[in-house]
Structures are given as structure tokens and as C-alpha cells.
Amino acid sequence: MFTAHHSFLLTAMQDLQKDYDPACWACIGPSLLTGVARKITNASMIQDIPASADLTVTLMQRMMPVYWSAAPELLFPEEPVSFHRWRTMFGNSSTVHFFGKMTAHLVVHDDPQYSAYALLGPRYCPLAYGSTNQF
């Protein structure tokens, strides 16, 4: 959440309009927002953003507990995964990104041992999970 008239969102929209590349699917996510944060705070590294900047940064692991290139294998494994392993993977997350661009082609099993979505969906996204017909 930002304070009233914070420059972050306006700067993000302006940078997106100026630099948008429809062929670059990752350019409007973390890359854009990281660049804006560094720009408006004059920090070369995110960890150097001063408290006075009125900008709190959430660690990527809170939203993306797995690296994008490992998402298919880790979120939809071929071998069964224990609930302890899932708990370890998601223990520090407040959200989970399923990387649809990387995983949409997968056949997903409605079994929590083989699918992070089958594990998390019924509890955290029951309407979306219940509306799917791809299991």
C-alpha cells in the first residue's frame, strides 16, 4: 500500500508506456517494478533503499518460493512430494506464483502429492480451484 500521491505507480505506468515490448512477457513484472523502485529512491540495489523512501520491499521468496525456471518440476513434480516438503517450500510465502507461461501446458493431477495447486487451491483459492475442469 502506498501513501497518497506516492510516485511509484505513476512512474511505473510512465516507464511501461515508454519501454513496453509486447514480445517480452517478463518485462512488465519484477523487472519493471525493481527498476522503478531503484529509480525513485536513487538506490543501485534494492537492499539499499532507505527507510525514508516510504517504500517497503517484499522479498521475492514471499511471493515466488521457487525460481521460475524450476517451477514446472517443483510445483508439479512427477514423483510424489511429502507434506513436510511442501510445508518447507511454502513456509515463508504469503502468495505463490504458478508461472502460467511455464506451466500451462502441463497435465495437472488433482492430487496434493503431485501438484502444489491441488494442495493449495482448495484452501486458498477455493472458487478458482472449484471452477477448473482440467483435472
Q: How does this model look, in words?
A:
The structure is a single chain. This protein is mainly α. The protein has helices at 8-19, 30-41, 60-63, 71-75, 83-90, 100-103, 116-124, 126-131. The protein is elongated. It starts with 7 loop residues before the first helix and ends with a helix.
Notable characteristics:
mainly alpha; elongated; 135 residues; 44% helix
Overall pLDDT confidence: 89
Q: Which structural class fits the helix and strand makeup?
A: mainly alpha
Q: Write the H/E string, N to C.
A: HHHHHHHH
The N- and C-terminal alpha carbons lie at a distance of 36 Å
Helix content: 40-55%
* Main beta-sheet annotation: none
What characteristic shape results from the CA principal axes?
elongated
> What is the tally of helical segments?
8
What low-confidence regions span 5 or more consecutive residues with pLDDT below 50?
Answer: none
Please tally the β strands and state the result.
Answer: 0
Gyration radius over CA:
18 Å
Strand content: under 5%
Secondary structure layout plus pairing:
Layout: H1 8-19, H2 30-41, H3 60-63, H4 71-75, H5 83-90, H6 100-103, H7 116-124, H8 126-131
In short:
With about 140 residues, this protein is mostly helical.
